[in-house]
Every structure is written in C-alpha cells, then in structure tokens.
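Below is how a single chain appears once it has passed through the pipeline. First comes the sequence as given, then the structure the pipeline wrote out for it. We keep one example in the README because the format questions we get most often are answered faster by looking than by reading.
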Amino acid sequence: MLASRRRSCQLRQGTRSSTVHYNAAAMDVPAACDSILDTIGSTPLVRIRRMCSEPRVVIHAKVEGFNPMGSVKERIALRIVEEAERRGELRPGMTLLESSSGNTGIGLALVGAVKGYPVVITMAQKVSVERRQILRALGAEIVFTSKDGGSDEAWDLADRMHAGDPRKYFRVGQYVNPDNVRAHYEGTAEEAWRQTGGRIDWLVLTLGTCGTLVGMARRLKERNERLRVVSVEPQTKHAQQGLRNMSESRVPEIMDWSLVDERMTVTDEDACRTARELALKEGIFAGISSGTAMFAVLAIARRIGTGHILTLLPDRGEKYLSTSLYPRGADPS
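Resulting structure:
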C-alpha cells in the first residue's frame, strides 16, 4: 500500500550521472502529492564511506530521516491507521491512543492531523523536549507517566485508558500490532532489496518495537536464505531513546527471535560518539539510535573483512539538540 501511494511522488532516476550538475529540466520529476502522507517511505539508501575502514566491505544505510517528520515510525503510523480504517476498527470521531517515546507518537500526530483524528500519547517524562514540542505543534495531547516511569509504564497507562473507554479510543498497539511488521515486510525491505540490487549479506538493526527487524528480516531472508541478521540493543539502564534492552524491558509480542542470528549490545557512550561521527564524517545528522546501529555495523565490518552490510538509521538529529548528544553551539560574545 505504502509503495503504491508513494509511486506518484517518487523521483525516478532519469539520465543524470554523478558528473552532471542537477538540472530538473533534464530529469523526470514527481507529480504533485495529494497530501504530506504521500511522502512517507521511499527513503534514500546511502553508502557509508569515510567511517568504513574495510575497503572490501560495502555499507549501505536507509536514511529514515527523509520521512516528513524525520523518522521510520511514520511508516507504521500510516499503515496501522489505514488498515484499521479498512477493517472498520477505526471510525470518524475516535481518538488515536498510543504509548511512545516520541517518534511513533509524532508519526500518529501527523497522520491524525491530516485525517482529522484527535491523538493522545502516553510517554515517559524523560523524553527530550523537542519530542514534546513537536507533538504539541501537531495537536497531540500528552499524558505523562510518573517521574521515574519508562516505556513499559507508558504502555500500561495507554492500556488502562483504552480499557476505561474502548469506544472512544483506537488503541494503536505498536508492540503487538502485526501491521507494524507488514509495513516493513512489504515496504522497507522491498525498497532496500531493489536499491541494493539484492546485494545484502548482513542486516543490522536496532530493537525498539521490533517491527522493523521482524518485517525486514523475514522478507529479506525469503529473498536470501544465507542472510545474517544482527539485532542491536542498548546497554541496561540506557539513555538511547526509542530503543529497548530486552533483558530489562518487556519484549514486544511481535518479536520473532528465530530471525536473529546474532545479538549485540552498545553502550550509551559508543552510541553517542558514533552518531556524532555520522554527522562529522558522512554528513548524516541523525539521532542516538543511528549511532547504536552504526557502531554495531562497523564492528561487524572489521570482523568480516568483505561483504555487503545493510542497516537503517531511524531518525534525524533535531529531536536531540537539548540532550548531551550534540554540543551546544557557541554563544554570541
């Protein structure tokens, strides 16, 4: 569904080469989009060059910051809402309800704004101020957990609110909803397969809701049975917003460990340092979870010495400017 709705907006590769300056008059250009929702998906695949020290390893990253609100979660927000509409589970006048550390909530707020649904997001108090500001700008209501509450408490809070008024709320349920997986099985994975020409030996992805890994791994292993899949988690008691350490957090029901060949854990320090290097060496301004993914990718590259590695960078860096991830700019003298 996502691929077909985006096709009318997708810029096709015309005759342009790497040695020719941009000239729209000599290229195919996309038709006008019916709404901002038509720009979700079909994100670019970018080769990582300066950070890769192994000349026989090719690293490609899906840069999900090119989605309209800057994250991969807009894919699942749109897919879950439209499938629920199609099945009659979501009707006009209902409110979208979900727990989120930010990105899924922002994606739902975007979809809700376009389609006319009120949106309520339950979230931990420790999320970055930028996430809260964006949600409010899009008209979403935020219900916070207790001061020390995390993603599991936000999950339970949304469940209780839905149980109290099930006719008012459509419970999105990103951790249990199979449409989360389908968005990546039919969308993200197929995009990456075509963009790489099928040259993928390793798939390295972080774990949050687990939908990205399950959907992409399932589809790409059908395409290439020798594919190696690596799941990447943050350290325990981490500050990597949007990710889950599965030894201390609830494991989402949609997770399928049979798809995973190897598990890795990345510290906050390594994730932050690598996210900064992405900006400094590759020009990719991304969030902390992108540093988590890339740290693992580079470790695998050094180990294997040759091959093709695919990863996904979940979001852009603007949502982290108030955190310690990026240094504050110089103040005027």
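Residues 178-196 form the longest helix (19 residues).

See the next section for the split statistics.
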